[in-house]
Amino acid sequence: MTVAVFQKLLAIFLTVLLGWAAGRWRWLESGKERSDPARLLGNAAFSVFVPALLFRTTARLDMTVMPWRTVAAYFVPVVGMMLLVYAWHRVRGSAAREGAAAPSVHALAVAFGNSVQLGIPMAAALFGEAGLAIHIALVSVHAIILLSVMTALVELDLARERARSGQASALWPMLRQTLRNTIIHPVVLPVLLGLLWNLAGIGLHPVLDEALVVLGSAVVPVCLVSIGLTLAYDPVRREQLHGVARAAALKLLLQPALVLLVARWGFGLSGLPLSVAVLMAALPAGSNTLMFAQRYRTLEAEANAGIVVTTVVFVATASLWLAVLTALPSN
């Protein structure tokens, strides 16, 4: 664990602590009526700031310089594991007990990593400019791929629930509504518009680009403060600790192990690309997990606790994976 990465971890904890203090002492409430600033901030992040970041990322993405083999070596095992966790929770009946969106929230919690506010300084400190370039390439499609896949699945699950409750009486209206909800969505729509903008080769006007930069830069602080607020307003309960521990083990231990196996022996990666991919897979859960849970009002406290727990434990597991990578033969 380098000094730069440790300092970044401390900065993250301090920001979360500020959000917790704001919730604990009700700094963001006004009047006698109790409000829910955690949900308000989460909705603002997911509906305004994250779409701006996703649109700008996809509109500026240079497809010709992407390290596609490394991208595939990372996302094949990560998406595969995410879908397996989703299927496992569907089979176990999580949707019936915790809500239709629960399997998707569980799956995203073990797949989506803190690739920006922690991952970028870690890659820069450990791997230098060359490693940072590979990490940024993975980051550029990280949210696009993972959030889009889970959005499609959660909207399908919600459509099934509406059909069972009698709110959708025919197949085609249900499919139409599901497709509309999937596309007209704060994650999928800006990605699609950004890709179309990119393919058109229009480029971003400096004023528009600056506005998107300002909006996108709010994602990290707003999300971190929202984590602290949620901890204050909706603390994790004892019965949720088992699920949090299981998700932390999957995120910090199983996911990087899968990426290591698939990337090295499936895609033939070695050296710097392999190290960057494994360390990105080993990152703690990202704050978009909480934003996703808040949007669908499912497992918010558990998703929030998972972010905090995995960030704390990451201090030890990151050192473990660095040792494993160092011990690998350099062929």
Shape: globular
Tell me the fraction of residues in β-strands, as a range: under 5%
**Any idea of the CATH class?**
Mainly Alpha
H/E element sequence: HHHHHHHHHHHHHH
Mean pLDDT: 83
Biggest β-sheet, characterized?
Answer: none
Summing up helix and strand content along with how strands pair, one would put the structural category as mainly alpha
Termini, distance in Å? 25 Å
Helical content, roughly? over 70%
CATH topology: Na+/H+ antiporter like fold
In the CATH hierarchy, the architecture is Up-down Bundle
Number of strands: 0
Low-pLDDT runs: none
Number of domains: 1
SSE layout and pairings?
Elements: H1 3-24, H2 37-60, H3 68-91, H4 94-98, H5 102-109, H6 119-164, H7 171-183, H8 188-200, H9 206-217, H10 219-233, H11 241-266, H12 271-281, H13 288-295, H14 300-327
Helix pairs in contact: 1-10, 2-8, 2-9, 2-10, 2-13, 3-5, 3-6, 3-11, 3-12, 5-6, 5-13, 6-7, 6-12, 11-12, 11-14, 13-14
Written account of the structure:
With 331 residues, the chain is mostly helical. It has a single domain (3-20, 37-327), classed as Na+/H+ antiporter like fold, CATH 1.20.1530. It is built from 14 helices and no strands. α1 crosses α10. The protein starts with a helix and ends with a helix. The mean pLDDT is 83.
